């Protein structure tokens, strides 16, 4: 599933890349930062036999447009997600989200009132506190790293992405994750999505979670160095009726650290929810 050669949704001046495969109950995958839907492609392909799977790149990410005039904060992405779901004609999809995609899908549901059949949150940005020392440096120095020579910027992004894994990523995987953030368009977009990051939306999420009634599954890497597993337990306590699994020997990129375990979690959750429906 190459999102770059698939469908386009034009929305408020943005061009959102997306793809759809399969037949059955609707499942939507949401990626995080600084990643793209590429992380979810193998899982979507494996599920397409029994589900209609949807993947998309948030505006400012992957193969979607990266116009500097368009905000890429949580609220903007949640609005884009809401519009895209309407464009697809989906009413109650099963949503599976990673990292930043967690806060985006939560805001679309909690603030925008978008109904889901279920929600799975995998090592998500969802509640405060958040933001690595690198995030804090970029936010304190907006525009500074945009000026780095391209080869230095690429090295910075590679180191950042590699740090998300508990195990060593292959060069091919790192290249695929880094490539959208390079060049005249990609480099400033990489830093812009950090500068636009605003934790106030996470506080808003936290204050609203007590009223959630949809089924929620939380899956977390036991060795997540970006978002400590303590956040998973806090999130579990905040969302009524949620369930939590901690996967050993996995960092923030469970997709590559423990792909079999993650596939098992996703498949078991979707099978359980669709049997009940």
Automatic annotation (TrEMBL):
Domain AB hydrolase-1: 27-262
One Pfam match: Abhydrolase_6
Record flagged with keyword ATP-binding: no
Protein name as catalogued: Alpha/beta fold hydrolase
GO molecular function: hydrolase activity
Classification via InterPro entries: AB_hydrolase_1, AB_hydrolase_fold, AB_hydrolase_sf
Keywords recorded for this protein, A-Z: Hydrolase
